[in-house]
Amino acid sequence: MRAYYYDNRDGEPTLLHDSGIEVDAAVLKAMGVLYWSIPADPEGKWQEKIGKISREREYKNRDVIESSRSTLGEKLDDAMAMVWKEHMHDDEEIRYTLTGSAYFDVRELPADNWIRIHVHDGDLLVLPAGIYHRFSLDSEESVKMMRLFKDEPKWVAHYRGPETDANPRRKEYLTTFARSEAVSVA
């Protein structure tokens, strides 16, 4: 995983958009974004580690999704447009990258800058409920991810706007993670 400030320049979301300013994992953690590096191994110990984290964090269900031109065909563009639009969820978003790579962009608190997180094989990322974020494939345009869920698998996006700003999960996120000492370096 590599995190940095998004450069906000025009161009496809699949481009690097690297501002050159790195973001430390401690900054992400202060925003409620959690990360583990769990490389796949032939002995299957990665599955044990995912299982342990799942038990500790009460993830009861999982599935596997693959996003690529070969798996989605013409539907890929529509699917990527939907997840590129800034949104939040009422539940955590938990993703373990099995193969490939992709970007998760999260809104920094309190500055509201985009932080780009580039995930690769073996990266487990947890976005807290209520955080504004978006997703994009990178230039390889192929990723296979395990999604983990606390309850039944679901994916409901609340797109950013006044109604979503008033969402109880958004307000809870802000109360929990908006800290006056958080300072943007962008």
From TrEMBL:
InterPro entries, sorted: ARD, ARD_euk, RmlC-like_jellyroll, RmlC_Cupin_sf
Residues that bind Fe(2+): H87, H89, E93, H133
Catalytic activity: 1,2-dihydroxy-5-(methylsulfanyl)pent-1-en-3-one + O2 = 3-(methylsulfanyl)propanoate + CO + formate + 2 H(+); 1,2-dihydroxy-5-(methylsulfanyl)pent-1-en-3-one + O2 = 4-methylsulfanyl-2-oxobutanoate + formate + 2 H(+)
UniProt pathway annotation: Amino-acid biosynthesis; L-methionine biosynthesis via salvage pathway; L-methionine from S-methyl-5-thio-alpha-D-ribose 1-phosphate: step 5/6
Keyword terms, alphabetized: Amino-acid biosynthesis, Cytoplasm, Dioxygenase, Iron, Metal-binding, Methionine biosynthesis, Nickel, Nucleus, Oxidoreductase
Chief site of localization: cytoplasm
GO CC term, one of those recorded: nucleus
The keyword Cytoplasm appears for this protein: yes
SUPFAM superfamilies noted in UniProt: RmlC-like cupins
Cofactor note: Binds either 1 Fe or Ni cation per monomer. Iron-binding promotes an acireductone dioxygenase reaction producing 2-keto-4-methylthiobutyrate, while nickel-binding promotes an acireductone dioxygenase reaction producing 3-(methylsulfanyl)propanoate.
Function: Catalyzes 2 different reactions between oxygen and the acireductone 1,2-dihydroxy-3-keto-5-methylthiopentene (DHK-MTPene) depending upon the metal bound in the active site. Fe-containing acireductone dioxygenase (Fe-ARD) produces formate and 2-keto-4-methylthiobutyrate (KMTB), the alpha-ketoacid precursor of methionine in the methionine recycle pathway. Ni-containing acireductone dioxygenase (Ni-ARD) produces methylthiopropionate, carbon monoxide and formate, and does not lie on the methionine recycle pathway.
Family that this chain belongs to: Belongs to the acireductone dioxygenase (ARD) family.
Xref: PANTHER family: ACIREDUCTONE DIOXYGENASE (PTHR23418:SF0)
Name of the protein: Acireductone dioxygenase
Originating organism: Phanerochaete carnosa (strain HHB-10118-sp)
